[in-house]
Specification:
The structure is a homodimer of 212-residue chains. Chain A is of the alpha+beta class and 212 residues long. Chain A is built from 8 helices and 4 strands, in the order E-H-E-H-E-E-H-H-H-H-H-H. A 4-stranded mixed sheet of chain A has the order 2-1-3-4, covered by helices on one side. In chain A, strand 1, helix 1 (22-32) and strand 2 (36-41) form a beta-alpha-beta unit. Chain A starts with a strand and ends with a helix. Chains A, B: InterPro entries: Glutathione-S-Trfase_C-like (IPR010987), Glutathione-S-Trfase_C_sf (IPR036282), Glutathione_S-Trfase (IPR040079), Glutathione_S-Trfase_N (IPR004045), GST_C (IPR004046), Thioredoxin-like_sf (IPR036249).
């Protein structure tokens, strides 16, 4: 079968560099040791081919033979199943990792992402909705903080769920949202000190720098 | 193996009734025809046992033998794999449904949920962040609208991805956010006209009404 290919933008502005979601796929691929290639799609002019592969006009997507998958969570699940790594084989262990994979995205990123939209807008106005949104984020972070107490990783071993959760928390940390959550912060530090993350991060920076 | 059990709240206020996420599990279980029981956990006093099963203090969670899974996306994937229904067996078809399962949650609910937080707060102030958030929602809905053109369901057949996506869009529709998206609205109408949805919906209403 053909190599796995990640498609990401050819270029992005400086602000998202190091945070574009192709880093999740690069990281997982470095962890599992599968060969892969990285291809580019235009950032500034997103054409039909882009939307055929990623109907929301985002990146990344993964292709492998006749399979094309967008959504970083689906991509990581595919890579884990293809490699037999970062996801336990036994039904109970497998279900726990998949549960935390969804939780990183749907319980935590769902709170972090709107928070970052306001931060990137420079909007600090304390309207009632904004207070509710900030309360939503702090509640979610508080629950992750409690869960991480005494744990190195979300499940028994480092897994695809940790790639998602630590990357999501990393984005919160960028705006200093983890200052009251030491377990979350040390969890992120543990994750980003892995050689596979460091390589993925540098490769993403290099990829976008090439197009400057 | 023991029956599948869904745990949801014993009671909720009127506003979320018909929208509590146990409806996604009830709906899937009615579609696939697996036997199941529904148990309750206190809404007003969420204790240690609740957080052990659902570390964010939300509902539902699913138990089956020694397996306990929260996150509706993970629950639906488990139910599809357990029943062999609502998820194709071939690798390409399977990957497409899983991709759209994540997309409903992470590309669409991620935009709908913060929008509903502002709506439930009665907050209509047009701050820069709020405008960015509303733009995020309308972009995502616009992409779903384009994708649904000429399609009955997200993939070839009705799947777990449609349960998630239509339930997410249903919440947006509640605040009239679909008025400019006729494909989305007719997709929701098609989904909620299924007998399995109708039963799940009525069962949820009945469950909470019992505790009034």
């Amino acid at each position: 079968m053909a190599d796995i290919t990640i498609t990401t933008f050819d270029w992005v502005p400086n602000v998202p560099r190091g945070y574009v979601r192709d880093i999740r796929l690069r990281w997982a691929l470095e962890e599992v040791g599968l060969p892969y290639r990285v291809e580019s799609t235009p950032f500034k002019d997103r054409g039909d081919e882009h939307f055929e592969n990623q109907p929301f006009g985002q990146v990344p997507w993964l292709t492998h033979g006749d399979i094309s998958i967008f959504e970083s969570g689906a991509d990581l699940l595919y890579l884990a199943e293809t490699s037999g790594k970062l996801l336990p084989a036994d039904p109970k262990g497998r279900s726990e990792v998949i549960m935390w994979l969804f939780a990183g995205l749907n319980s935590v990123e769902m709170a972090v992402l709107p928070f970052t939209i306001f931060k990137f807008s420079g909007d600090e106005e304390e309207t009632p909705g904004r207070q509710a949104l900030d309360g939503f984020l702090s509640a979610r972070l508080g629950h992750v903080e409690a869960y991480l107490s005494g744990r190195n990783w979300l499940c028994d071993d480092f897994s695809i769920a940790d790639i998602i959760m630590s990357d999501v928390l990393r984005l919160a940390d960028r705006f200093d949202a983890l200052s009251n959550y030491p377990n979350c912060r040390s969890y992120v530090e543990r994750a980003v000190s892995r050689p596979a993350f460091k390589k993925a991060y540098q490769d993403q920076l290099d990829h976008f720098a090439k197009a400057d």
